[in-house]
Amino acid sequence: xxxxxxxxxxxxxxxxxxxxxxxxxxxxxxxxxxxxxxxxxxxxxxxxxxxxxxxxxxxxxxxxxxxxxxxxxxxxxxxxxxxxxxxxxxxxxxxxxxxxxxxxxxxxxxxxxxxxxxxxxxxxxxxxxxxxxxxxxxxxxxxxxxxxxxxxxxxxxxxxxxxxxxxxxxxxxxxxxxxxxxxxxxxxxxxxxxxxxxxxxxxxxxxxxxxxxxxxxxxxxxxxxxxxxxxxxxxxxxxxxxxxxxxxxxxxxxxxxxxxxxxxxxxxxxxxxxxxxxxxxxxxxxxxxxxxxxxxxxxxxxxxxxxxxxxxxxxxxxxxxxxxxxxxxxxxxxxxxxxxxxxxxxxxxxxxxxxxxxxxxxxxxxxxxxxxxxxxxxxxxxxxxxxxxxxxxxxxxxxxxxxxxxxxxxxxxxxxxxxx
Length: 420
Known about the structure:
Layout: H1 6-10, E1 28-35, E2 40-46, E3 52-59, H2 62-76, E4 78-83, H3 91-99, E5 103-106, H4 109-116, H5 126-139, E6 145-146, H6 152-185, H7 199-207, H8 211-217, H9 219-226, H10 234-247, H11 258-288, H12 293-297, H13 304-313, H14 323-330, E7 335-339, E8 343-347, H15 354-366, H16 371-382, H17 387-408
Parallel strand pairs: 1-4, 4-5
Antiparallel strand pairs: 1-2, 2-3, 5-6, 7-8
Helix pairs in contact: 2-3, 6-11, 6-13, 7-11, 9-10, 11-13, 13-15, 14-17, 15-17, 16-17
């Protein structure tokens, strides 16, 4: 492997949440659990001996939060602030707590709810949730996740990557709606469905959104109109559309409204695609300023969007002791299930960071053009694995490669993988 240089390790961002589940609570004078909210948080403070020293709502403003943190620190020393939501509504209290010199940690929501079930009573209130968080931090520090301070580039990438995922979900929803309308009116007209990501197809549907509109425009005229946007596909695309229309002689009820609905949906889809293209350029600009960008994109199947997700979820990888820890965090490590003689084996886990798992799965699929990745995938298929299972195993293998690249600050170097 070629060395990227010492500056890679010096300027890297750290993962926002440590996966190892360990948090140093030694020397903590008060455990302050915060059940965060939009306008106010509820705080519950406990000493290491379990004595309650704080229990009241906290307005979601910097002066009020800082005053409480400073007062507790002056009286008890080190304050550990624990939240159940580190992003969004939990961002301000965590930032203020850091600036005030407090330690910060994160108790995952699922773990908090399971712990809450051990306490008496069925009531669910902000005060009780804050008390559960504080007591869990005091008595079960292994349930906490350490929150690391990210650099400015990673923080901006977090916002942009989240917005891009929202746009991708909107594009999927709109595309599915269009495909459903196409299929319901003229089933074979759905030949356009798989091509909705192409600008020429969305342009065509914006202007001719029904079978009647397409027939009125005419085959030859549509070919000429589409050709500038899709020179190689124009003739074949229009021929397929008209072949589908010529096969059907009946008119499905409701087809007359397609000229209203489909063009509107197509315009929305085109706008979302345009937003994603502009956003990709912004993400790429940020990535170019990050010292790990070239390391990540040297790996086959890792482009701009995937690299952004990796930086947001993994950072420089130093929060994970081993590649196995990283694979477990991504939900790609097999989970052992055993119960007597009836249940025994390893199964794919349902948990893990879904954002990271999806990115690794899609990048594994995109990397099938890489000879080493393809060889590994083919060996998995030869052993009887399904397409999805083989991709998951390839993604797990690539996690180990990614971990080594981040650990050593080196570019990707293809090697013949061993199938175990």
